[in-house]
Write the structure tokens for this entry.
Amino acid sequence: MIEVKNLKKAFGDHLVLDGIDETIAKGEKVVVIGPSGSGKSTFLRCLNLLEEPSDGEIWFEGNKITDKVVNINQIRQKMGMVFQQFNLFPHLTVLENITLAPTKLGIMTKEEANEKAMELLAKIGLTEKASSYPGKLSGGQKQRIAIIRALAMNPAVMLFDEPTSALDPEMVGEVLELMTSLAEDGLTMVVVTHEMGFAKKVATRVLFMDEGKIVEQNTPVEFFDNPKHPRLQEFLSKVL
Amino acid sequence: MYLSSSWFGKTIYDSFYNAIVPDKRYLAYIEGLKVTLLISFFAIILGILIGVIVAILKVTATNYKMKWLSKICNIYINVIRGTPLMVQLLIIYNLIFTSRNTNELLVGAVCFGINSGAYVAEIIRSGIESIDRGQMEAGRSLGLNYVTTMRLIILPQAVRNILPALGNEFITLIKETSVASVIAITDLTKAALYIGSRTWDILPPLIIVALFYLILVMGLSKLLSVFERRMAKSDRS
């Protein structure tokens, strides 16, 4: 579904991604971990071209999206993204946040979008917040709404950029729970996170990044119980 | 003492009476007010239009590293902000609109609009840049294009942040239209000067138009604060 070939990204002289080759198949739940500054967020943000790669190719459902002629806006409709800082639109109500993109892009009528939004809100138990503004919500509620805002577009894949890193500890659970249930529904996911528990439980594959490269990848069991690369062994010994 | 103060009161009454009633002079104020309002209104509209466009061009130029575009915007802003309004008015009036049957009102409105646009552009640009980068990214990641995200997500939030500064600019603009008299526009100020020259008593008409400006500006301030409160509704918790 997503194919990355020799992806490189430099900020000035600093090479953040140093030749990444990776293929993500439909239905996979890929968790990316690594120390800060290893390039994992940049990698994720390159997948929907929020960061423009300096070199290399990215293919999505048979389209080479690094090609200038590809309409990236259409590609992004199929790739939901969830941010560390939620990035809800503070001037719009929760319902408007969710329905804005589907209606403005002409994918759904106002009624269809509202119906879909209420259905998703019901799923996360926040129906009564539909007409609230984001300023009145807790961090966990904001992030769960950001997730269903992306889901309302019926994306083929969801990208999560450290979705729980900005949350109070007591709110991490509710967000991970929602993500786990999405994974169980068969959604294709790429998740950058520091939540090792989530990686063990939900991932089909775990990638370890260090200094702009994917150093090791494996199934979660092998990855955590039997790490091979010394850098990964050192990392795991510190975080587990 | 009693005599002198009564004499004083009567003189003031007479001078204001003379400045308003004879020859239906009050009509001159009304006409002047109409002109001031017309120029201000169209200048504000034009200023907003130019300001929004220039601000977006400038921000876009920075985002997409188009140096030439931001250079053009900066030249416009620097020239307008770096030269006196009255000089701009005279240059535009004499240089560009040289034909005999020039519509001074139109020249005035256009000139004040172009002038205000430079200030509004800088205000709006600061507003756009005050919005977190994540808002643009969130919009784009949902598949909305740059312009739509700007229009539906960034600008509404930016405008809310800059409303007080924008209000200041409009207040300044209304007061600065008093310079329009140099290109033979009979606005409020010109009306006062005209009446003063007829009655040989300049102070009363000047005080009268000062009151007109004061009321205009206070009305606008009131309007803006109502608007500000309404826009702040999503911040309430």
Summary: DSSP finds nine helices and ten strands in chain A. The first strand of chain A starts at residue 2 and ends at 11. The beta strands of chain A are 2-11, 14-24, 29-33, 55-60, 63-64, 79-82, 157-161, 188-192, 205-210, 213-218.
